[in-house]
Amino acid sequence: MKKTLKALTFGLVAIMLMFVLAACNSESSGKGGAVSVGIVLPTKDEPRWVQDEERFKAALDGSDYTTEILFSQGSSAKEKENVETLISKGIDVLIIAPHDGAAAGASVEAAKEEGITVIAYDRLITDTEAVDYYVTFDSVAVGEAQGQYLIDNAEGTGVPLYLYAGASSDNNAFLFFEGAWKVLQPKIADGTFVIANSSEAEALKDKSELTRDEMGAILGQVTTNWDPSEAKNKAETHLTAVSEDMKGDVAILAPNDGTARAIADVFGSDPAISNYVVTGQDAEKASIQYILDGKQTMTVFKDVRTLVSDAMGMAIDILEDKTPETTGSYDNGATDVKAKQTDVIVVNKENVQSELIDSGYYEASEFTGLE
Ligand code: BGC
Question: Signal sequence: where (predicted)?
C-alpha cells in the first residue's frame, strides 16, 4: 500500500512536472534558450552521482524544459566555475550538491546576489546564509541503520570493530557517523565490540554524544575521503597493524558502497579474517551484485527518484512564485535552512528483490544470482 502510494505520488509529480515544464519553457523562450534551473553535482567518478544525473534526466524526459546539469569533478574551483556558467545563462534556481560544504559558500553567495534561489541537494552547504532550501535523506538515520545492522549481526562479545567514515568536507559524513555512534557506543561500552583501528574513538568510547570536534578527531583517523583507493589503503594498513586477536569474525562500519567494496576486498583476502559484516549505502549496482555474491552485507537504499522529484518540485514552486513545502530545518552554522527530508531503507540479500527490482528501481537482468 505504502509502495503503491509512493509510486503514485511519484507518477503524479512527474506528470505535473511535465505540464509545468512545458509552461515554463514557453515563458522562458523569450530569453532565447536561457536555462531556468541549473543543477551542479559533485563528481562523475562515483556511480551515486551518475545515478542522480540519470534520475534528473528521466524526470525531465519528454519536456524541453531548460535545465542544465554540470559536474564539479571533486574540485571546489570547478564547482565555482560551474555556478558562474549557470548564472551567466540566466538561471532562476540553482540545485547544488557541493563537493565541499563550506567552500561552496562563495559560489552560492554569488548566485544569491543575482537573485537566484539556492537549493542544497543531499549535502548541506555550511556557514552561509545564502542557502534557501535543503532536500535530503535522513542522514542520521543512515548511520543508525548501519550501526544497528552491525549490532544485530554480532555474535558474542569482544567483536573487533573497524570504523571508517566519509570526507570531513562533507557535512553528511558527520551525520552518518553521529547516527552510527549513537547506536554503537553503548555496545562498545558494554564490551560487545572492541574498536580495532581508532585510538581517538577508543578514548571517547564512554561518551554517548560526541561534539563535532570530537567526531572530527575520529574522522581524521578513519576517513576514506569518499575515495575507494584511500579506503583500500587504510584497510590494508589497519590489518597490517592489528594483532591476531583483532581478526577472526569482525564488524566493519563502511560509510558508503564505493568504499565498502574496496574495504571488503581487503578484508576478504586476509586469511585471518574468518567472517566480516560490512555496511554500505547508496544501493549502487556494483554493491547490489556484491551483496548477492556475499561480499558486502548490506546497503542503505536512498531512493534518488524521490530526492529528484522533491528538488524539481521545489524548483517549480519557486518558478511559479509559490512557497515550497518543507518538513523541518537544518542548522548550517549560519542559519536554519528549511528542509524536506526523505526516509531510507535497509537492503540486504533478503529484500533486494522486493525493494529494488519489484519497485522498478533496477532491472533483474542487471544482476546475477537473484532468487
Ligand atoms: C552522500 C552519499 C555518497 C557520499 C559520497 C554523501 O554526501 O550522501 O550518498 O555516497 O556523499 O559521494
Answer: 1-22
Atom number in ligand 1 closest to CA 139: 8
Convert the pLDDT of each residue in 210-232 to its tens digit. Answer: 999 999 999 999 999 999 999 99
Do 99 and 42 contact (CB within 8 A), yes or no?
yes
Four-residue CA torsion sign, 258, 160, 157, 249:
positive
> How high is the mean pLDDT of the chain?
92
Q: Is 99 in the pocket of ligand 1 (CB under 6 A)?
A: no
Ligand 1 centre distance from Cα of residue 183 (Å) = 21
Q: How far is Cα 138 from Cα 164, in angstroms, rounded to an integer?
A: 19
Separation of CA 243 and ligand 1 centre (Å): 32
Q: Residue 320, Cβ neighbours under 10 Å: how many?
A: 11
From CA 296, how far away is CA 283, in angstroms rounded? 11
In one-letter notation, the amino acid at residue 91 is I
Strand partners, 341: 136
Domains and CATH numbers, the chain: 29-131+304-341 (3.40.50.2300), 139-302+347-366 (3.40.50.2300)
Of the candidates 250, 255, 266, the residue with the CA atom closest to the CA atom of residue 300: 255
* Ligand 1 center–CA 48 separation, angstroms: 7
CA nearest to 40, candidates 11, 5, 12, 80 = 80
Find the length of the chain: 371
**Strand (E) positions, 237-327?**
248-253, 273-278, 298-301
> Which pLDDT value is given to residue 354?
97
- pLDDT (tens digit per residue) in 124-162: 999 999 999 999 999 999 999 999 999 999 999 999 999
Question: From the CB of 282, is ligand 1 less than 6 Å away?
Answer: yes
Q: What distances in angstroms separate CA 261 from CA 184, 225, 277, 291, 339, one per listed residue?
A: 22, 15, 12, 10, 31
Distance CA 42, CA 101 (A): 11
